[in-house]
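Hey Z.,

So I finally got round to the magnesium ion thing we talked about over coffee. Here's the setup:
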Amino acid sequence: MNEIYVGQDLWEKYGFHTNPFDTNPLTAESSFLPIAEAMVGRGSDTKESQILTNFLRNRGGGRILIEGNIGVGKTTFINYHRYLWEHYSRDRLFTTNREISVTSRWQISQFLGNILASLLSKLLSQFKEEKILKNSIFKEVLAFSRVFYNYNYTIEASALGFGGGFGKSEQINVPNISESQLLEYFSLMVLEIKKLGYAGLFLHLDNLELLNREDLRRTHTFFEEIRDILQVTDVYFVFVAKRGFFREVISPLERVRSIFFGRPVVVNALTKEQVLDAVHRRYHLLSITKDKFIAPVEDSFIEYLHDLYGGRLRYIMDALNMLLPEIATKRAETISTEQAQKKLKNLVAEQTREHLTPLEWNLLLFCCQQENFTNGYLSNHFSLPTSNISRILNRLSDLDMIYLDQKEGKNIYYRVSEFAKPLKDWKDDVMGKNDTTISREIDSTNKTRQLQNSRKQRLNRIIRFIQERGEIQQKDCAEFLKISLATVSRDMKELIYLGNIVCREDGKQKYYRIKNP
Ligand SMILES: Nc1ncnc2c1ncn2[C@@H]1O[C@H](COP(=O)(O)OP(=O)(O)OP(=O)(O)O)[C@@H](O)[C@H]1O
Ligand SMILES: [Mg+2]
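And the result:
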């Protein structure tokens, strides 16, 4: 393995306080990248901002849906508006510290419990605890929120940010709270918060795709059930989901659709100029000595990534982060675009090829050249039966190298995933040899055999590690075995595919354990 240069002074060598390619959504709280200065392209002149602002200007509360593709900047967009309305509006809106992430296992009580706990967490971080405890409603909610947390692990860890508050000797009788009582508490809390000088509440409910993915019927029921909660006066519910959520989930529910504000607000990807502006702003804001820094990559590489990922900032930043251990040397310098492209491509190939047979690899490379593709199209091109292609497509999809994009009649269209996209121009490296020759060559080299052996050893080490720990997350495994998260992710999929382990999802978190015989 190449020697990787790491250390807490990594970014200092480039002249930065911290990583300029951090993938977290921008927030008002961030000390180095305050949202007002780091955010680009979502100002009041944009359509998305205008619609959202008009929605919030309606007195009395409401419900709106924000849609956009993965990683375009949806969460950051709403964080920005929460910040504006909390600090710079004549009619200030109270908001929680973080967005509330809705998961598929939630029932009404969890939904309300989470909202109440997040509101309290914010109140406690904003005002003195004594002030909060003087208010009987806040005090009661604080009491049961703690108990509620113990029984409902889906509550965000941020909800634990309560700073004590009750003396050990104090006896608090926590009633068994019904859904209607919870709703009553919610309404009362809204009134109490308004007494603190706010015109209403801005609730940011994010990651609705977590609901959608699992089961459409359950999601429909969830929305039917929370309909009454959504109508509490002076609360602005802003839901964030991926494209198509309104059409699939909200539109078919007449009673739910009627309480939503118009159509969803669509957040599109930023333009090339805006993405460059965003990166330059990060360089500027993070520079230790004002504007004295070494850019890790050339601007033209960012432009290349913009084209590759259709402007989706999360993937652009992810790719830069993936490259980082490869390009960071003891002496900080700007890597050329040509080198950066080559390294990115090689990295993806390294992590991909070892999981695939030559035919699967060959087919993937072909798919990388296509906008989208169907089984029939590949079957024609490779002169293989559709059943074989189907098996390969399943395999590539399990490994997140391709994904099902849309169904049109009998046709199922797939696309290459963002992860595999850098393989698009892989062929250039092998000077025009055709795909079949390449795959034969790959197959016959010792390198492939060595890779396969080292992969087997790694899979065995992962299994042993899970056996020892019982249940683990990918990051534990990456840390312990000192391998990249991307490799662990692929290995976990492989082990699930082979039937060695199973995965349990809890919200956005995934846990892995050995499959019972
Ligand atoms: N307008 C913007 N200006 C500058 N940086 C941005 C902007 N929007 C997003 N970013 C950055 O892009 C990355 C992705 O943003 P964000 O998490 O908001 O996207 P998202 O659409 O919510 O992603 P996901 O679909 O994964 O939830 C983050 O690193 C964020 O800081
Ligand atoms: Mg988001």
